[in-house]
Amino acid sequence: MSDFSVTTLTMHRRFSSTPDRVFEAFLNPNLLVKWFMTREFSNKVVKNEPYVGGTWEIVDHRDGVDYRAIGHYLEIDRPRRLVLTFQMPQFSESTDTITVELQSVEDGCEMTFTQEIVVPHEANWTPEDVAKALAEYHSGSEHGWNLMFLGLKEIVEG
Fold first, then answer.
1. Which one-letter DSSP state was computed for residue 135?
2. Separation of alpha carbons 40 and 97, rounded Å
């Protein structure tokens, strides 16, 4: 059995906004602080170098705990496609890959969000343990992104 498995989370959203504005919300630190992770009041650090090979970092402080997310940009094709890595070192050394694709539609744009979630295995896991972990990582990530995309919607449609 391998040391990890991967589950793919794909989500679709429509925004009454241009692809440029949504794309900008993923790269501009002044916008990113308002929706990525949680909200502006709890995001204490937002650093961004929006170029291929550049890094990003957000530290969100909730309930006395800092949650740090980091990554780097793999592809930036403004305003159609963004590929970046996503890692939360306090929870795992694994690195996920996120792809955001934007397409103009009649009343705004449609976003297809895909996260390749790497799930590290613990020693002696059974196939059932792996399946359970994959389901938990998938649903937990989906829940988190659903909340973040509500904030993103406010930013790009406001």
1. H
2. 24
